[in-house]
Design brief:
globular; 31% strand; Rieske Iron-sulfur Protein; single chain; mainly beta; 4-stranded antiparallel sheet
């Protein structure tokens, strides 16, 4: 009985795990953005910028990457692709809007709050800031 309980616990944790990447568009895309923020649009907290290309000139993400600076040290980077129909997102005031289904996403947490994608998340990328350079990668 004890072995069965351990197996059941393992099975439930393996298949029942919730992961934001499950909500994101399928497929791996290379992403590596490295930019100096001294004279950049992301220089101040509350700012947002869209990146179409990686550091090496290749396309960033599927449809580009939106980066939001929450405070002096915290940045959030999201794939600008709708998790419902994989269409590009338009950048609005503190929101990203799907060009196809009209779903709205918050740049603060990447969550859909209106439309077909309500409750779903955009793919989020890793960010690292050393005080001068911001690196975004997967």
């Amino acid at each position: 009985m004890k072995r069965f309980s351990i197996f059941l616990l393992f099975f439930a944790s393996f298949f029942g795990a919730c992961n934001r990447e499950d909500e994101a568009p399928a497929g791996y895309v290379y992403l590596y953005i490295n930019t100096e923020l001294i004279t950049h649009q992301l220089q101040y907290p509350g700012s947002f910028n869209f990146f179409e290309y990686n550091h090496d000139g290749t396309p960033a993400g599927i449809n580009g990457v939106g980066i939001y600076r929450a405070n002096n040290e915290t940045f959030y980077a999201y794939e600008c692709t709708c998790p419902i129909d994989e269409q590009p997102l338009d950048i609005g005031d503190m929101t990203l809007k799907c060009t196809s289904c009209g779903s709205l996403f918050s740049i603060l947490n990447g969550m859909g709050y209106e439309g077909k994608a309500e409750g779903r998340y955009l793919r989020q990328y890793k960010t690292y800031f050393d005080g001068r350079f911001l690196t975004v990668s997967n």
